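Workshop exercise sheet. Pairs work together: one partner reads the sequence aloud, the other fills in the structure field after running the prediction. Swap roles for the next sheet.
Pair: D.N. / O.F.
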Amino acid sequence: MQQNVSGDPGPSVPDDGGGTDGTHGAKPGDAKHDGGHRAGGAQPDSAQPAGRGAGGGPDRTHGAKPDGANHGANHGGGHGGHVSEATALERFSNSAWAWGKEIVTILAIALVLSFLIKTFLFRAFYIPSGSMENTLRIDDRIFVNLLVPEPFALKRGDVVVFKDTQGWLPPESVKTGPFSWIGDVATFIGVAPDSSQQHLVKRVIGLPGDHVKCCDAAGKLTINGAAITEPYLFPGASPSDTTFDVTVPAGHIWVMGDHRNNSEDSRAHQTESGTGFVPISDVEGRAIVIAWPLNHTGILGNYPDVFAKVPEPSAVGQGASSGVIPAGQ
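Structure field:
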């Protein structure tokens, strides 16, 4: 085996009469094949020499775009920026519209629920006077359970709100102003308390058939002959500064304010017009919660212990009254 060593010309190869391309004994096809391997993917013979353009023109970088192409690419990039900006704005608009629809839906559901609750379950009222102090104070907001007196029955000691159908209150003044209807709508829907002056709030003392009298020798109010001690009275107030002796007729109740010295209740209207007995049909419901102000919130109880020893009436009749007269007369 021959081994080529640097400086050794190696064995001579006879000339076959053809030209050589620098590779001794190689065929033209082999030369191209070998050259292709050695050049690492060089262009075939027809390709232009490196560094020269067609016709001897200036050199160009292989794969570079002409100026027009570069301008088109830059121009296309500008349009791409506008498209991206428009797409972002469209996404924001779609998101805002979706949020808007969701908020409107939630508000609509809330208003419907508020109306249903106000109509069938609970209703808010505003306290304008001090006849129920200190249980209720002026400007208190209360929630009333509309399930009383039906399907749940009234009980002695319940604080109730009832409509004035007997003229206990003076006529309400007509509201004026361009925006007076807003309050009416809010009250109707149930998002605002009822501030009308045609409702009253008192405590139930006598139920149908009860014999209510004031006062006994100890100065206490009696129901069906049983004396009661009333812890809910305004401090310093007596059970009544007038005497009365009544039997509550069927379908009615006898009501009194907790601030007895500052309450025109069944006592006053029985002696003035004979309308002291309140129809149960006028009762809107039982007040159960003071919701506002926050420093006076709480549950309104009906003091069952106060009335625990009161016997049931022997019979429910048409009702009777011996009148109401000032104490001491």
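Discussion prompt: Confidence is low (pLDDT under 50) at residues 1-79. What would you look at next?
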